[in-house]
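Entry 14. Structure prediction run on the chain below.
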Amino acid sequence: MGNSPKQRHHVRFWRSAEVDQLGKPLWVGAATYDERVEISRATLGVTHKIAPTIDRERNKIVTDAIRAGMLDGYYWVNDFHRQPDGRNGGGDPYFTDRRLAIGVIGVARRSAPAEDRSQRLVGHDGLGISDKPAPKPAR
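Output returned:
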C-alpha cells in the first residue's frame, strides 16, 4: 500500500445499542481491502472498489489484534452469512466462508505471549463466558 490512498486496509467500528453482562458497550466492526479508486455506478462519485476476498481482511484484523496484544480471545460463528457470495451496495462481487469472528478487545494480558493469547478464549456465548479452545484463524 505504501502512501497510496488508492489501496488500503479499511476498518470501521460502530458502537451498538447493546451492552454486555457488565454493562459495557458492544461494538460491531467490518473490514475491506480497497483495491483501487473508481467512479461509483450509483452516485457517480469517487469510491473505492473492494477486493472480493472479504475473509482475508477479517482474518487480518484477528491476527493483527492478537499480535498487538489487544485481543484477549475470540471465537467463530459458523454459517453467519446466508450466502457464500454476493454483491455489495456498490455492485462489487464478494465471497466468504460464511463465518463471523467475535473478539474481546482491550482486555489483553500484556504479560502473556501472543501465542498464549491466541489459544485462550474469552467470549460471550449468550450464557456467560465460554472456555472452548479457539480455532486458529485461516491464513
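The beta strands are 8-19, 25-39, 46-50, 71-77, 85-87, 93-95, 100-105.
Filed with the rest of this week's runs.
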